[in-house]
Amino acid sequence: MNIAPDSYSRTRKRLLAAVASLAVVGAVGAGALATGTAPVLADAVRVQAPQVPSFADVVERVSPAVVSVKVKAKIQPTADDGSDDQDGFDNLPDNPQLRRFFKEFRGFGDQGGQQFGMRPFGHRNRGNGEPRPVAQGSGFFISEDGYLVTNNHVVSEGSNFSVVTNDGKELDAKLIGTDPRTDLAVLKVDGGGSKFTYVDFADDSKIRIGDWVVAVGNPFGLGGTVTAGIVSARGRDIGAGPYDDFIQIDASVNRGNSGGPSFNLNGQVIGINTAIFSPSGGSVGIAFDIPASTARQVVEDLMKNGSVQRGWLGVEIQPVTSDIAESLGLKSEKGALVSSAQDAGPGKKAGIAAGDVITQVDGKDVASPKELARLIGAYPPGKSVDVTVLRDGKTETVKVDLGTLPSSDKQASNNDSKPAAPAKADTLADLGLTVTKSENGKGLVVTDVDPDSDAADRGIQPGDTITSINSVEVNGTDDVSKAMADAAKAGRKAVLMQITRDDSNRFVALPVGKG
Question: Is 153 annotated as catalytic?
Answer without folding.
Answer: yes
